[in-house]
């Protein structure tokens, strides 16, 4: 937990993620990452120089028993809100999406942000970590032909809401370990395509790359953090 906390603290500081009197909604899916995020932010709250409020929100995609999350939040004294949605039905039964991940993510994002706003929050914290960032970066290059990745901190002007990703320096093995060590009440992922997605392919590719070329994962993350050395062919500048 000490390592998780210090990496999170560093990211919060580097990207100015938490400010005095923030009311932060943690998007709690019931997966290991958002459970680790809730745990870390609750611990961080004790010694943070800025006072901030914490709540947790779960969007139920339909038919999931989230009672262990209600109990966890009660034990941690964190106000908890579970919102029933029909995301699963929309994505799989009504729209019958061939590539369901982006529609599902959009619907979740919209519902989470709307709920956070209604509950008086000015920030939403998501459980993305360092491996998610590396995978998203590579996915955008390999599947979409563009260089991009989500940001550690983004302000949504329309809703006047800031999205933060405090675990951006945390490696996935750390959240896996925390889930074991602290016996998090993991809710089984209800997604029917879980484990068969483009993201899973990229995860395996990154792992193989790093075995074949030790250090490549670190360099991919380094590239994301190296805006001063970003050289892309810009026809207007070159000609
Ligand atoms: N159903 C949900 N309710 C609330 N927040 C969610 C939900 N699904 C995802 N999120 C938020 O969005 C983040 C990224 O979602 P994603 O589906 O990529 O999760 P993940 O990488 O599998 O993480 P986790 O282990 O937390 O599920 C999560 O860490 C969480 O903060």
From TrEMBL:
Pfam families hit by this protein: ATP_bind_3
The entry's keywords: Transferase
Protein's UniProt name: tRNA-cytidine(32) 2-sulfurtransferase
This enzyme's EC code(s): 2.8.1.-
InterPro entries associated with the record: Rossmann-like_a/b/a_fold (IPR014729), TilS/TtcA_N (IPR011063), tRNA_thiolation_TtcA_Ctu1 (IPR035107)
Keyword Transferase: yes
GO molecular function, one term: transferase activity
